[in-house]
């Protein structure tokens, strides 16, 4: 079964479900005819031949899931009819502070008002090697050019929620086997607690595997490709960022995007996509551009888009010269994710206004060593000044 996660309605493609719908309609027609010709039942007590209250009636057809239900991670531009949401067990009502709410994946979330800005930072030396052994006192943070005091600090291998976004357009057909192998290699070298989902995208994005730690399931999701169509890169990234914000187990979140061309089918623009990702408080976007056989115009457009997406979110954009380099890139991404510093601060900007705030981080090396810090370029504050995307913490299931 595949779920389409584009700007349109979610469509569930399954032959079994089509047969089930036909059976449901047929059964309903027979039942309606039988009820119309049967004598009236007493008003009190169970109807003769029917199951008592609380028991299932074997004569009735099984209730099938609503195939028109919109489970699109990106909110559709058209309003969802009331009839389509009436059977949902998951509330879409925003939670209040202190309230525990159940998500669609069965995870309970405790919502709190959090005003701490959290930054995942990668520190590298002049040779591009990761730097370890830094302390909280070695970091300096500015927000909109105003110095901030670092209030929390961690440098440990934290589990991550990862989205694997693989281009499924026609030009990717001969590259998918190598790319799928590299994506699994990334997961093998990651923290064993990491969870990931798979989105294959062309002119639409399909959630072919939900969050899981199981490599076999991820391999199965990556294998659901029929390379054809165009490339709706921006829509796929926005949809996957929303998927992370709603269903991720961990607050540290990453998207790995692999594509061999420029976007030519999205509803969203590059700027709107970046803004949407930043508005969610993350995730970090790592991208692999397989542009070695693209023409000059295509190369420039795709290179700029992937580079900007990664730079603005604190990730890295890679542009290999051949498929043979992709495996080593996957290992680099896994190592980068596992060797980050997480620092937090409470903004001194008390204006309470919403909008984008620029963040800059520096690290001081030993003996004057020049260091570079890679992190997101800023965040969108909510009304009241709290950082967007940081109002929820996963709570254990009751």
Can you put this structure into words, describing what you see?
By secondary structure, this protein is α+β, with helices and mostly antiparallel strands. The protein folds into 3 domains: 1-86, no CATH class; 111-155 and 341-395; 161-338, von Willebrand factor, type A domain (Rossmann fold, 3-Layer(aba) Sandwich). Helix content is 26%, strand content 24%. The chain is built from 8 helices and 19 strands. It has helices at 15-37, 82-85, 176-188, 215-222, 233-247, 270-279, 296-313, 326-338; strands at residues 2-4, 12-13, 100-102, 108-111, 116-124, 139-143, 146-148, 150-154, 161-167, 195-201, 205-212, 253-259, 284-289, 317-318, 341-346, 355-363, 372-374, 378-381, 392-395. A hairpin with a 5-residue loop joins strand 3 and strand 4. Helix 3 runs antiparallel to helix 4 and helix 3 (176-188) packs parallel to helix 8 (326-338). The longest helix is centred in the first third of the chain and has 23 residues, at 15-37. The radius of gyration is 25 Å and the shape is globular.
């Amino acid at each position: 079964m595949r779920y389409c996660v584009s700007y349109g309605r979610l469509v569930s493609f399954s032959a079994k479900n089509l047969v089930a719908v036909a059976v449901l309609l047929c059964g309903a027609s027979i039942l309606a005819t039988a009820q119309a010709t049967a004598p009236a039942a007493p008003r009190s007590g169970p109807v003769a031949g029917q199951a008592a209250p609380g028991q299932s009636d074997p004569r009735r057809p099984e209730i099938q899931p609503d195939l028109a239900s919109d489970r699109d991670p990106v909110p559709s531009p058209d309003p969802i009819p009331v009839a389509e949401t009436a059977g949902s067990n998951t509330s879409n009502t925003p939670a209040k502070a202190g309230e525990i709410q159940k998500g669609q994946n069965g995870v309970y979330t405790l919502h709190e008002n959090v005003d701490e800005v959290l930054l995942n930072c990668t520190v590298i030396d002049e040779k591009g090697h990761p730097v370890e052994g830094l302390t909280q006192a070695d970091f300096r943070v500015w927000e909109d050019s105003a110095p901030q005091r670092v209030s929390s600090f961690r440098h440990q291998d934290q589990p991550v929620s990862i989205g694997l976004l693989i281009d499924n357009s026609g030009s990717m057909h001969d590259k998918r086997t190598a790319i799928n192998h590299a994506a699994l290699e990334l997961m093998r070298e990651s923290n064993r607690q990491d969870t990931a989902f798979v989105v294959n995208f062309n002119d639409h994005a399909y959630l072919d595997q939900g969050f899981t730690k199981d490599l076999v399931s991820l391999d199965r999701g990556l294998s659901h490709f029929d390379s054809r169509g165009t490339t709706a890169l921006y829509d796929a990234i926005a949809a996957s960022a929303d998927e992370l914000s709603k269903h991720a187990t961990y607050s540290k979140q990453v998207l790995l995007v692999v594509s061999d061309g420029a976007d030519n089918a999205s509803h969203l623009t590059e700027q709107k996509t970046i803004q949407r990702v930043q508005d969610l408080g993350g995730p970090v976007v790592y991208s692999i551009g397989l542009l070695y056989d693209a023409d000059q115009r295509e190369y420039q457009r795709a290179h700029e888009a992937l580079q900007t997406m990664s730079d603005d979110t604190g990730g890295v954009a890679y542009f290999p010269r051949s498929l043979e380099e992709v495996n080593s890139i996957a290992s680099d991404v896994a190592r980068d994710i596992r060797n980050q510093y997480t620092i937090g601060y409470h903004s001194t900007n008390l204006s309470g206004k919403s909008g984008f705030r620029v963040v800059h981080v520096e690290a001081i090396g030993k003996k004057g060593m020049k260091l570079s810090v890679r992190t997101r370029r800023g965040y969108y504050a909510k009304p009241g000044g709290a950082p967007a995307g940081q109002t929820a913490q996963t709570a254990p299931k009751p």
